[in-house]
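Lecture 7 notes: from sequence to structure.

We start with a single chain of 782 residues. Read the sequence below before looking at the structure.
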Amino acid sequence: MTPEIIIVLSILLGAVMLFMTGLIRMDLTALLVLLALAFTGLVDTNQALAGFGNPAVITVLAMYILSAGLSRTGISSVIGAQLLKLARKSERRLTALLMTVTALLSTFMNITGIATMFLPITLELARRTRQPASRLLLPMSYGCLLGGFLLLIGTTSNLVVRDIMRQAGYTPLGMFDFTPGGMVILLVSVLYMTFIGRRFLPARQTPQVLSADDAHETSAAHYALEERLAMLAVPHDSPLAGKTLIESRIGRALDLNILSIQRSNGGRLPAEPHAVIEGGDQLLVLGRLERIDEISRKPMFDIESDLPALERLLSGACGLAEFAISPDSPFAGKTLAAAELRRDYAANVLAIRRGDTLYRSSLQDMLLHPGDILLVHAPDEKLENLKALPGYQWITTRDIGSYGLDERLLCIRIPQDSPLINRSLAETRLGAAFGLTVLRIKHADEEWAQPHPSMLLQAGDLVIVSGRPLDIEILRGLQSLAVERHVQGHLQEITGGPVQIVEVMLSPYTTLSGKSLRDLDFREKYGVSVLAIWRGQRSHRSGLAEIPLQYGDALLCYGPQEKLKAMAKERDFVVLNMDMQETPRLKKAPLAAAIMLGVVVAAIALDVPISIAALAGCVLMALCGVLNMDEAYQSVEWRPIFIIAAMLPLGTAMQQTGTTDLLGNFVVQGLGPYGESGIFLGLMAFTLFITQFIPSAAVAVIMTPIALNTAHNLGIAPQAYVLGIAYVLAACFISPVAHPANLLVMSPGGYRFSDYVKHGLPFALIVIAVSALLLPVLFPYR
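Now the structure, written as tokens:
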């Protein structure tokens, strides 16, 4: 074994481990593989970058655009509508039709895209046949996957396998070489699910938002919304009267969703952020009501108005200072929260002066500009550390009159029965909820300047806070709210017409994973409220603003129809309501179908390279108005593109260093006693296993050269082996993470990981059995 082979095997093993563990993003792992090969000299620069101009990569990119063109014309929607007409027929027939239709569509269109489009259609089918969605969603997902077996363009891995054969000097697989075996696999799989597998599908009820009139009732029941509904009565003399909903802080302070406002005269208004509260209003809210009970039953704190807050703030070893933000400051362009002055310097920013304007509230979200002057409060030793900053100036109480701190600093006392006792500062949410910044705490004979967020409040504590008098007034207004529970029936009154409750899932293409609703400023950006989040087997109904979103989450959204329809156009979401879908360009459907057919005919009859034919199809779709160029760019899923392009040099390195020869000999020696068929089965079984955890395109780069070399060592034609590998690469049935189409249906179907193993394993065995028995007949070894 040469040093070069050892290096290649080390890179290969490292890549496999990173792919399987997910410690690093898959596309980044692939790029690391490319760089490792280049830096070690196993491939030269041209070979390292050749993947980005590889015909297979160009074809994959073009197929995303062609698929998007077909999708935007509504071909799948038209076919789905025909399926809906059969919704009252037998479940067996419906299952067979659903799998067959999705398989045929995904032969020419992106598998994930078909699964995304058919998700709301399948949910509507489930409603019309009055059966759990879990009885149809998994067959639909598997049907989409089965389309990858029928044509060369069915999956990205098919194209990669073909190109590796071409580079190795073999006659590459043709467009229809996949079809005979693929049709048999499709037929056997559909028959199995229709007559056997369907009997074992789970019958789990999960939240579904459909187009029927009772859709909101179904969602409310599954998310258990009714038990968290309440009516808040606003007294006529409430300090909240005249304030907008956003100014009232009801949502943020009490962690509630405000659904509607009912006026004292009987009128009802949608809960827009800038709607004005009036005395006598009743607010329909959703959320945990314990917070309201806490602040309404007992005072949270008492205001000690006779104590000089500023004098106490500056007592001890604490002081005030100003410093300016210079153009080259590390803080320029950051929000105050991102600058993390409190963490790094134990400094609280009390005000920001920008030109002639003074800002003293909502500072944390302000973007710092060069020239801004910050007034900070910090311990003296920390202020010393700030002296290196530009424009630093120590100031005293004689110099700060222009900041008006006296009217913003308050001394508050924690009473004996306060709900804040034994809660940390972070848990009290005084800052996030009420806009109050805790600057200093005195307990008995001890004082803490810049107290840590984990510090617990105790009865009798004297706390110096910075805040607006309006914030204290709003807090008193919150304490005056009266709570009316048991308000069943109100949810039906506020839904229907222009306002709807709709379930929205994060799509496979989402860029929102890892971000919270607060990070996204979700309500302001999309104009809808999130009432609950369904993840796995349960719903989350409180603390939603801080929950990092994950792909597969279902968000129960409440808002105007036009906002929900706008969300349906966003690539990040799948709106599970047929009535909310984007209007398709049906007039362009025949043209789009003709262009796609032309691509296939050109590649077969005219011997045009498939990459060139596919690119020509993309250009024609753009020129004919099937989709515009912006839509074309947005339709490309760049992660698989980079994975394929960056992993292809690994195949080159394996070939040049003799690694494929070594691994091929190892396969022959290990499985040789079982004959050519035994070796074939072994290669497919191993490929099937790793494909459940590693992107199939990356596995194609690894396994195709090994299959080719193994066939060469055995002295047989490689077509059967390579086509079997391609089939198994498309058999992503056993794990929800093996393909986005599987993960897409997991939440709305209420599936568990074990469901995919139990139902996917028979499909995988069908693929292996058909391949082992049929391919050597269709493509003889000799």
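Residues 239 and 470 are 9 Å apart (CA to CA). Keep this in mind for problem set 3.
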